[in-house]
Amino acid sequence: MEVSSETGYFHQYAKKFRRTLTTQEVDQFAALTTDRERFAYVNELKWRVVNELPLEQSSPAKGKCLEKALKHKCEGDRALGDGEWAVALKCYNRAYLLLPEENALEKALLLDNRSQVLLQLTKLDQSLADIDRAIGYGYPPDQLATLWERKARIFQTKKDFKSAVECYDKTIHYLQQYPTGLPPEQLAQKLDDLKKLTDTVYY
């Protein structure tokens, strides 16, 4: 594999990664004075594009394997349940790279789980990005309230209260439009709590 030539994979990766950076981010990087600071800065940003710019390349002979992907996802689910966030993230990343594009539902469910892990790792923007991807892949409508509520709470943590209110409104919408499995009394209480929370955030 070529590394430094114009046609090398890592050269192409670097160019694609560079195009994802804003002018402000480039200026911030340029202001750093040590290699340690530069590495930490890029290492944080790379998660934003981990899906679009995977460093792992599968050979045509191997292709994407659903069976292997689901195995990695199961391992990630176990790690998630045990609170081993770094292990879970590694497993979910591997699973995502292996999942065939046509397995949209599996991708959506995987991204939901990875979003939870990223949230636990306080990678808020990356968690939000995975939620949006999960929705884009056709996350089950009757479960969308969970994703929108997570988005709302992340925006609230980021003090983006306008976006938080919009997401809480979406949460209420999906709870009202789709069966949740909650008893009527619990659903009514949930909706009331969300409306009160929305008012608190808004005002």
From TrEMBL:
Chain coiled-coil ranges: none
Protein's name according to its UniProt entry: AGAP008841-PA
Keywords: Methyltransferase, S-adenosyl-L-methionine, Transferase
InterPro entries documented for this protein: SET-MYND_domain_protein, TPR-like_helical_dom_sf
GO molecular function terms noted in the UniProt entry: methyltransferase activity
GO terms classed as biological process: methylation
Top-rank taxon: Eukaryota
